[in-house]
């Protein structure tokens, strides 16, 4: 009987043209977006510098090499180039500044950064220029102090300092969460329609038990969510990286979104209500994925979102080679969260029956 229910629900799910189109477009669009993103990380910082006209060619060559910066002719040219994003940062040195640097005196140097620069990156630029200008000798062309700039990261290098991760690989957990969210919305709408149209009550006056009704919905939701996200990982070539962990994480993630779908369906009263609730949960669930792309903007409170543990497990396993021991706790918490949503949503749905 459960098999017959799943078959019936599967046909009803894809009979809705909206979810049929959105599901197919999501599969194609997310895979295409992955391949459109850069395949290699860009870990270089482009900077520029403007020197006085009377600076010698030797001094220009030395400063350009010491600061790893391109030489520009004027302050106006530098400002325009930095504002346009041609350089991440730039600075202008006049004769007084050069003399102060040479004599080891205190000097204030303005660093211009590109629009949208994060506070952390601004501080890194200030440190870069401070270390550079404080430790060069303009007469001898040698550094005054040798600085060990090797960075040792303890644990997984989630910021990509040691071995940067390509943007598309950082984005993959977010794309998978968005695919999960499409199936969340579809399942919630299917259950809500059966409640509002009286189909669920009609089914339950037959020998069908309530537990069988919920089991069919759970298996359908988990099956669709798992298969579609698995297809994405196959299409982008990640299935071979950590297949066992990947399949486990996607299965537990499917349980979470199915549980959230039950929860939404318990309160929604129609398609527009399902859509409103789903958009709210979509925004919350994808926040950890955004935090993977931009690690410096993520705060500790983001760990209270259940999808964080799915994103964290996928990110560490696919991009940093984490094993079961590293992601075990993530998957356990994720499983508990999914089960909690499933039981809570099922309990409220029973009350509506």
Short description:
By secondary structure, the chain is mainly α. Helix content is 65%, strand content 5%. The protein contains 13 helices and six strands.
List the helices and strands and how they pair.
Elements: H1 2-15, H2 17-36, E1 47-50, H3 57-66, E2 70-72, H4 75-83, E3 89-92, H5 95-103, E4 111-113, H6 119-134, E5 136-137, E6 142-143, H7 167-196, H8 199-204, H9 210-235, H10 243-267, H11 271-293, H12 307-320, H13 324-352
Parallel strand pairs: 1-2, 1-3
Antiparallel strand pairs: 3-4, 5-6
Explain this structure:
The structure is a single chain. The chain has 353 residues and is mainly α. It has two domains: 225 residues, no CATH class; 97 residues, D-Maltodextrin-Binding Protein, domain 2 (3-Layer(aba) Sandwich). The protein is 65% helix and 5% strand. It is built from 13 helices and six strands. The strands form two sheets. It has a four-stranded mixed sheet with strand order 2-1-3-4, with helices on both faces. A two-stranded antiparallel ribbon has the order 5-6. β5 and β6 form a beta hairpin. α7 runs parallel beside α10. The longest helix has 30 residues. The radius of gyration is 28 Å and the shape is elongated. The two termini are 20 Å apart.
List keywords for this structure.
D-Maltodextrin-Binding Protein, domain 2, 5% strand, 4-stranded mixed β-sheet, elongated, two-stranded antiparallel ribbon, 2 domains, 353 residues, mainly alpha, 6 strands
């Amino acid at each position: 009987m459960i098999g017959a229910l799943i078959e019936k629900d599967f046909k009803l799910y894809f009979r809705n043209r909206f979810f049929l189109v959105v599901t197919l477009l999501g599969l194609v669009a997310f895979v295409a977006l992955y391949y459109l993103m850069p395949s290699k990380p860009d870990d270089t910082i482009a900077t520029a510098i403007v020197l006085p006209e009377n600076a010698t060619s030797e001094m220009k060559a030395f400063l350009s090499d010491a600061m790893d910066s391109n030489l520009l002719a004027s302050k106006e040219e530098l400002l325009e180039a930095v504002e346009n994003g041609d350089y991440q940062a730039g600075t202008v040195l006049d004769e007084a500044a050069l003399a102060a640097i040479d004599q080891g005196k205190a000097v204030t140097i303005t660093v211009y950064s590109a629009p949208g620069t994060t506070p952390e990156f601004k501080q890194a630029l200030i440190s870069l220029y401070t270390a550079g200008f404080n430790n060069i000798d303009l007469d001898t062309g040698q550094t005054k102090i040798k600085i060990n700039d090797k960075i040792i990261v303890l644990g997984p290098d989630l910021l990509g300092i040691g071995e940067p991760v390509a943007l598309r690989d950082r984005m993959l957990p977010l794309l998978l969460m968005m695919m999960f969210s499409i199936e969340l919305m579809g399942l919630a709408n299917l259950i809500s329609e059966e409640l509002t149209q009286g189909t669920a009550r009609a089914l339950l006056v037959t020998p069908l038990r309530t537990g069988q009704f919920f089991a069919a919905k759970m298996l359908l939701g988990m099956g669709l969510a798992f298969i579609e996200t698995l297809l994405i990982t196959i299409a982008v070539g990640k299935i071979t990286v950590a297949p066992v962990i990947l399949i486990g994480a996607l299965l537990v993630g499917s349980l979470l979104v199915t549980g959230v779908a039950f929860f939404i369906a318990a309160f929604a009263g129609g398609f527009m209500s399902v859509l409103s609730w789903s958009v709210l949960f979509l925004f919350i669930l994808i926040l950890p994925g955004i935090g993977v792309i931009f690690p410096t903007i993520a705060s500790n409170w983001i760990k209270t979102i259940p999808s964080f543990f799915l994103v964290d497990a996928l990110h560490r396993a696919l991009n940093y080679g984490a094993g079961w021991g590293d992601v075990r706790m993530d998957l356990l918490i994720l499983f508990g969260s999914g089960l909690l949503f499933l039981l809570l949503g099922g309990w409220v749905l029973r009350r509506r029956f």
